[in-house]
Design goal:
The protein is an alpha+beta fold. Helix content is 58%, strand content 10%. A hairpin with a 5-residue loop joins strand 3 and strand 4. The termini are far apart. The C terminus is likely disordered.
Length: 188
């Protein structure tokens, strides 16, 4: 096969550049909406089923992004579009609270006053055994030690024990890290 034919196959664009960009933008925005609606568990909290779904989604949207174009140039255009769009959206979220809420959502209490909130766990897709595992990873032997657990907007679960001052939430909390360092240093 001559070098010119190979180069043509690698770099030719069977689709218009604008169509490549539009396909990538539409798929990206669709996935942002779908993943926002589905939930916000962090990667470490996902189970096998979540991983299978993510892999299948990636395979399904691949065809929507590339269309009939398997060229290197088409891939570069799609990747560049996705990276620019993602960075632009991240920066816009940084400057706009409304957009931040729309994209990231807000925190949700999973445990309040030492009691798991079943409705919140159901909404966030976190089972009681998963919550127990998260507590153990944060140094709690049992959920009974946790006074408050909050699913943060970024998907991380923050767990707190005894009451101390925390103006953001309007009540008193004491963080796990403070618990450990205070007891070791003898400071109270």
């Amino acid at each position: 096969m001559p070098l010119a034919t190979i180069a043509h196959d690698v770099f030719s664009l069977p689709l218009e550049v604008l169509e490549k960009i539009l396909r990538a933008v539409v798929v990206y925005l669709f996935l942002v909406v779908v993943l926002r609606l589905v939930g916000k568990r962090e990667l470490g909290q996902q189970n096998t089923l979540d991983l299978v779904v993510l892999l299948l989604i990636a395979n399904a949207v691949q065809n929507a992004i590339i269309g009939v174009d398997n060229s290197f140039s088409g891939s570069v255009i799609s990747v560049a579009t996705l990276v620019v769009l993602n960075e632009g959206l991240n920066r816009a979220v940084f400057f706009s609270r409304r957009l931040q809420w729309l994209i990231d959502g807000s925190e949700e209490y999973l445990i309040r006053d030492g009691k798991p909130i079943k409705r919140a766990l159901l909404r966030s897709g976190i089972s009681l055994p998963q919550l127990r595992a998260i507590a153990r990873r944060q140094g709690y032997a049992d959920l009974s030690e946790v006074h408050i657990a909050i699913l943060e907007a970024n998907g991380v679960v923050s767990m707190f024990t005894e009451l101390t001052s925390c103006p953001k939430f309007g009540f008193y909390l004491r963080m796990l890290t403070a618990r450990g360092s205070d007891q070791e240093n003898g400071d109270r």
